[in-house]
Amino acid sequence: MKNHYCTCLRTAFGALMTLSASISFAQTPGTSPILTLSTAGLGISYGLTAELTSHFLPGGLQQNINDYLSNNPQTATQAAAPSVSLQAVPAVVQQGGYVTLSWQSNNAASCVASGGWQGAQIVSGSTVVGPLTENQRFMLSCSGANGGSGALAEAEVQVHNQNGVSVDLQISDATVAPDRSVELTWTSANADYCVASGGWTGPQPVSGAFVTPPLTDSATFQLTCYQGNNSAVAMAAVDIRTSLLAWRAPTSKADGSPLESIGGYNIYWGTAPSNYSDNVRVPPDTTEWWADLLPGTYYFAVSTVDGDGVEGAMSAEVSVQVK
């Protein structure tokens, strides 16, 4: 007979994503279970934490939960996801110039700026940024209220040097998983030579391409091109996207007796609800697991395996969207 263990599960992802639901319940002997379900979704730039918590499942309680949700589908309704647009005018300025950033969001509760500007912003508005001395990428991340997922908008501004020297630096990916490489490509005008700094170093040709070694940390790449005493600078950044799955282990069995030993945990995930195409067994002293996820929507669940090798019931499912 399969034991009913409920492994409490939370997720923390370094990219924007959505937590589908948070379930908690309690039961008094001789009564029906009291169950509540609320959605919770957070979206912030370069970081998110969300938690899904439930008590240990007595025998048969999982079926009662399923029945409750089937008869009360309105409890699982999620808030509308936010959207955001960002525009920089003008898109090309001379060194020392200013740009006006304008943005509009829908279904958003808060917004946070990053890249060429920083800090909390109102959900819709405009501001003047400058003086600019180098190419800039302006980013705005807006999170939804009552469970909406996160939205991200970007606007790039090219800064030209009045002395006629200019350089443009592009990066193949702005976010990658650990131990992945990115490609840098660049072109310049009226430059005799270029020098790399920041995440790469050394002299570079006035135009070219460069593939980085596998990256373990976020990095900013800078390229300065020269003609005599005149110069122009361009920058490009990459963020390392890591995905952390964490859980709290059960301490008792379905009948209330102590869970004396844990043999390990099975982690299941896939791209469709309750349809897990991948799984991995982790040791019993593990309560965190790093996942290398490409962009997409994923569904996770964790089960406990006791010291006798008997696998308990899966935790409630968590869905995340990696962008």
Overview of the structural elements:
- With 323 residues, this protein is mainly β.
- The chain has a domain at 8-79 and 242-322: Immunoglobulins (Immunoglobulin-like, Sandwich).
- It contains one helix and 26 strands.
- The chain has one helix spanning 61-71; strands at residues 8-13, 22-26, 34-38, 48-52, 83-89, 92-94, 97-106, 108-115, 119-121, 125-132, 136-144, 151-160, 166-171, 175-176, 183-189, 193-198, 202-204, 208-211, 219-227, 230-240, 243-248, 262-270, 278-282, 288-291, 296-306, 318-322.
- Strands 6-12-11-8-9 form a five-stranded mixed β-sheet, with no helix packed on it. A five-stranded mixed β-sheet has the order 14-20-19-16-17, with no helix packed on it. A four-stranded antiparallel β-sheet has the order 4-1-21-24, with no helix packed on it.
- The longest helix is centred in the first third of the chain and has 11 residues, at 61-71.
- The radius of gyration is 25 Å and the shape is elongated.
- The protein starts with 7 loop residues before the first strand and ends with a strand.
- Mean pLDDT is 75; it is low at 1-62 and 74-78.
Any chance you could write out the topology, listing elements then pairs?
Blueprint: E1 8-13, E2 22-26, E3 34-38, E4 48-52, H1 61-71, E5 83-89, E6 92-94, E7 97-106, E8 108-115, E9 119-121, E10 125-132, E11 136-144, E12 151-160, E13 166-171, E14 175-176, E15 183-189, E16 193-198, E17 202-204, E18 208-211, E19 219-227, E20 230-240, E21 243-248, E22 262-270, E23 278-282, E24 288-291, E25 296-306, E26 318-322
Parallel strand pairs: 6-12, 14-20
Antiparallel strand pairs: 1-4, 1-21, 2-3, 5-7, 7-10, 8-9, 8-11, 11-12, 13-15, 15-18, 16-17, 16-19, 19-20, 21-24, 22-23, 22-25, 25-26
